[in-house]
Amino acid sequence: MRASEKTRRLTGLALMTAIVVVLQLVASMFVRVGIVAPTLALAPIIIGAALYGVSAGAWLGAVFGIVVFLACVAGWDGGGNVLFTANPFLTFALCIVKGAAAGLVAGAVYRALEHRSPMGASLVSGIICPVVNTGIFCAALALFYHDTLVAWAGGTNLVFYVITGLVGLNFLLELVINLALSTVIVRVVSARKHA
After folding, report:
1. 122-149, pLDDT tens digit by residue?
2. 57: which of 88, 103, 160, 178 fits an S-S bond (Cβ 3.0–4.6 Å)?
3. Cα 175 from Cα 164, distance rounded (Å)
4. CATH number of the domain residue 78 falls in
5. Would you say the C-alpha torsion 60, 66, 70, 76 has a positive or negative sign?
């Protein structure tokens, strides 16, 4: 890779990183769906992964995870703060792993499909990113924070509570945002690759 290409990549990745941080800080501090903050930073993670590769997707996802963790520590995310209080190290690991995995998988899916159909690659990545993020979160809750989850559910069926009360609306919001931005993602990637 030439020096100018490296500089361009580094600059673009820095810009995507800043966008991820700002969007997730805004979501963490000002937007609520139930007891959780929706993830507004998935679209720039997908764009970064599409433009700069799978490792960039993992990096941007990890940055997103760090911001989510900081929101848990600061109390901006009430549910996350409960998890942090219960187990700070595990909460940190969960935030980083779910974010990095979402970016990595979205980037890998985009790369695998982009030659067939950029729009299809964008749509599938837009679906898979919140699925991985939310799926890892739900699995970790069930495995490591079971007592907290039971307390939050307040006697209702745990699966019903998770789907309808904890992540259902939040997940649907993230999915709709990503799908709505799919055409934008394709245009940004196309413009960048033809620049």
Report:
1. 889 988 998 999 899 989 988 998 888 8
2. 103
3. 15
4. 1.10.1760.20
5. positive
